[in-house]
Write a structure and sequence with these properties.
With 779 residues, the protein is of the alpha+beta class. The protein is 16% helix and 25% strand. Strand 10 and strand 11 form a beta hairpin.
């Protein structure tokens, strides 16, 4: 009976493998799966006949599979396992007595002997031995060390901030995410313990949009931490105890058309001209998801009615079109001198009639508009006259700005014009400024320089990250004011921030063609000498937990258009790698300005992008909610776009891991010193398995003068500490929810150093939601 059942199962599996494997062959793919299907069927036929050759034939098949797998992927366990796992399990099953004995013979004395199992047993043992060896290998790991030499012992951190405080999103206006504190070191970081835990009370609601996320980096000023929540509550808590001081709820409500429900941070401002202790002499500015900027008294949390319209600046002013939920600010504004400078997020791919991506500077005390820079009309920076409107759908900036007050420049990471995947009819200004880093004059709003990172962007390759400012020492000893700009496509631009000219070379490389007839693609695209761009995907990189989902991914790979990075979107469907999730995203990188090195988290996850003719777009469902994934309607455009991660039929990435690393690079030379797999599948699978495969993540790192880098971000719920020099993990703490925020650090008056992490989850990557603010310190 067992033999018959096994033969039937092998027949069914073999026919499926042969059928879909033949489809793969016709698409130009590997012949292995069709041959594997035939091997399963032949083995089944021999089993039906009770022929002992079934075991011998299957042994040859096992060895042939082993040879093919090693030829394709070498000793990479995470790719060998899915290729051979099912086959070895079947081989072990065939070795069982209830299979072997019916295939044997009966002696003249009436004793039944099983079929000779030695060839199959040897094949299984050899395969398991190769698997065991592969588990000791890590072909994706890059070992190395960053230089430890202090190149600049007195670097500029940006605006003046006490060493024990954290005044802005990246600690200072330079966005370095670097703290000069030294109490926590590589030697003692393993002793960190939780000091306090605070819960905001702002939790994800049933009617929230999918991408309800907690991405805030708290500020520390004096004895207080200031932060915001996904629904834009502003909160002040005691830095020593985590006790709440005040809370302000702006009542932003719920809107299903918002693509994002988040807040990355608030902005702190102290008016040096005001009388000490006077009401609103120190303020917290809160950006909201219903397009307001609210000024709050830092001591009490009460609205500062002297600012703008009774304390509220309405950011929808000057917009020709103003659909509710399509425009909001997700990131804290920058302050330079007496100006508060703010951009806004515009929903991707909703409509051709959306709000402008204008950048505006207001008087930080009164809220008066001082200048506006609209990339669709870049020369008119004087405040917009009554009756005029900003350019519809001009490229926007949803991320965080950096400021160099000495140079009088604010640095803007710009996105693309929506629709992201359709480039027809873009203006000359859009083609110049889309997906670029722009330096604006703080006083006038005029642009001083622009550095475009993608030409004619058809992939939503916004510049997503806050530019990082530091001074770089050249080999001849000359110090150059530099800007480090991480990008979604994996390039990290190291530029002279005075002019935008490259410090590390930038070259133009050939790019794929094949855009739809109405559009075009740029024949070349820029690439920085410091780049974490991925190697092009091949069929052998397709992955799965078994032969079957791996085969499905291989078929899909060949059905999609793909010619490497910058393959244009298409009606057929294109593979976009890296996807719009980005190699780097809003978490940016952290930089040590003394050693002039960086630490970051490159992520590798392919997406698909398919254009859908407008007449094939179904009507909007009544309960449809905003999202960047799935069908993006592009109302008013000839095509919608269907997009999302490149996943197998069972919902895991089609490309093989690793999907995420920690990495360190020397900013003076552009050399990548190390890349190590980061994160486990502990929270990605039904069983809590601690396998370190290198998982995707979104969030940012923070580093300290003590030589420690801190990072959450990965889709397993941990905060981790790393040796900045080597990238080796030193410590981890289990988080009660997803840690898709950037940690920060501060010290109290007694010198005791704390590390703070917000754990609230991220809707796009599916981590556990929560409302936690957790502080760690040494015992």
């Amino acid at each position: 009976m067992a033999v018959t059942v096994t033969a039937v199962a092998l027949t069914l599996m073999g026919l499926a493998l042969f059928g879909f494997g033949s489809q793969l062959v016709m698409l130009g793919g590997s012949v292995y799966y069709a041959l594997a299907g035939l091997s399963f069927v032949i083995t089944a036929i021999l089993l039906f006949k009770r022929n002992k050759a079934a075991l011998h034939f299957y042994a040859l098949f096992v060895l042939a599979t082993l040879g093919w797998a090693v030829w394709e992927v070498g000793l990479d366990w995470w790719q060998l396992g899915p290729r051979g796992g099912l086959i070895i399990v079947i081989g072990i099953w065939l070795l069982m007595p209830w299979i072997r004995k019916p295939l044997g013979f009966v002696s003249p004395t009436g004793i039944r002997y099983g079929a000779n199992a030695v060839p199959l047993l040897a094949a299984v043992i050899i395969s398991m031995g190769v698997a065991a060896v592969s588990m000791t290998q890590d072909p994706h790991d890059q070992e190395g060390n960053l230089p430890t030499e202090v190149v600049n012992s007195a670097p500029s951190y940006g605006n003046t901030v006490p060493d024990n405080e954290w005044h802005q999103y990246g600690r200072t206006s330079h966005g370095q995410r670097y703290s000069p504190l030294t109490q926590i070191t590589t030697a003692n970081v393993g002793d960190l313990k939780e000091a306090w835990r605070y819960q905001t009370g702002d939790v994800k609601l049933p009617d929230d949009v999918g991408e309800t996320t907690y991405q805030v980096t708290p500020l520390k000023v004096g004895k207080t931490l200031f932060l915001c929540t996904p629904h834009n509550w502003a909160i002040a808590i005691d830095a020593a105890t985590g006790k709440e001081k005040w809370k302000y709820d702006p009542n932003v409500g719920l809107n299903p058309d918002r693509q994002h429900q988040t807040c990355r941070g608030v902005t702190y401002y102290a008016d040096t001209a005001a009388q000490a202790g006077a009401e609103c002499s120190a303020r917290v500015y809160l950006p909201t998801s219903d397009a307001r900027l609210i000024a709050l008294d830092a001591e009490s949390g009460k609205i500062c009615t002297s600012f703008a319209d009774n304390g509220v600046l309405h950011l929808e002013a000057g917009m020709k079109y103003d659909p509710a939920g399509y425009y909001y600010s997700t990131s804290p504004p920058a302050i330079a001198g007496n100006k508060i400078i703010i951009g806004g997020a515009v929903n991707d791919n909703y409509s051709t009639k959306e709000q402008s991506g204008v950048i505006r500077a207001f008087d930080v005390n009164s809220g008066e508009l001082l200048w506006n820079w609209d990339s669709g009309n870049p020369t008119q920076t004087q405040p917009l006259p009554p009756g005029q409107t900003y350019t519809t759908n001009s490229p926007n900036s949803w991320s965080v700005f950096s400021v160099d007050e000495a140079l009088g420049l604010v640095y803007i990471p710009l996105g693309n014009q929506v629709p992201d995947q359709l480039g027809m009819g873009r203006s000359e200004s859009v083609e110049k400024y889309s997906s670029s880093i722009v330096a604006l004059d703080v006083n006038t709003g005029q642009d001083r320089w622009v550095r475009q990172t993608v030409h004619h962007d058809l992939w939503d390759m916004d510049v997503p990250a806050q530019p990082v400012l530091l001074d770089i020492t050249k080999p001849d000893g000359q110090s150059v004011p530099a800007l480090v700009g991480p990008t979604k496509q994996g390039d990290i631009y190291v530029l002279d921030r005075r002019t935008g000219e490259p410090i590390l070379p930038v070259t133009e490389e050939p790019a794929p063609g094949g855009a739809i007839p109405e559009d075009f693609s740029s024949p070349t695209q820029p690439t920085s000498a410091l780049s974490f761009k991925p190697e092009p995907l091949q069929e052998k990189n397709m992955w799965g937990v078994s032969l079957f989902d791996q085969l499905a991914c291989r078929i899909k790979f060949h059905e999609l258009n793909y010619e490497g990075r910058y393959t244009p979107p298409s009606l057929k469907g294109s593979l976009i790698y890296p996807g719009n999730f980005g190699t780097f995203n809003w978490g940016s990188v952290a930089v040590d300005p003394e050693r002039q090195i960086m630490f970051g988290m490159p992520t590798y996850l392919a997406f698909t992008s398919q254009l859908v003719p407008h007449d094939q777009v179904p009507p909007k469902a009544q309960d449809e909610k905003g999202s960047e994934q799935g069908l993006n309607r592009n109302d008013g455009a000839p095509y919608a776009v269907l997009m999302g991660p490149f996943l197998s039929p069972i919902g895991i990435p089609c490309q093989a891991p690793p999907w995420g690393y920690v990495a360190g690079a020397d900013l003076r030379t552009g050399k990548i010193a190390y890349k190590h797999k980061n994160g486990t599948v502990y929270d990605m699978t039904p069983l809590p398995l601690p396998f370190k495969v290198g998982v995707p993540g979104i969030g940012g790192p923070m580093i300290t003068k003590g030589g420690v880098a801190f990072l959450g971000a990965a889709v397993d719920n941990y905060l981790r500490a790393y040796d900045l020099t080597s990238g080796k993990q030193l410590w981890e703490a289990r988080l009660p929810a997803g840690g898709q925020a950037t940690p920060m650090t501060y010290a109290l008056e007694d010198g005791k150093q704390y590390v703070v992490m917000v754990a609230g989850g991220h809707g796009s990557v599916g981590t556990k939601p929560g409302d936690y603010v957790i502080a760690y310190t040494l015992p």
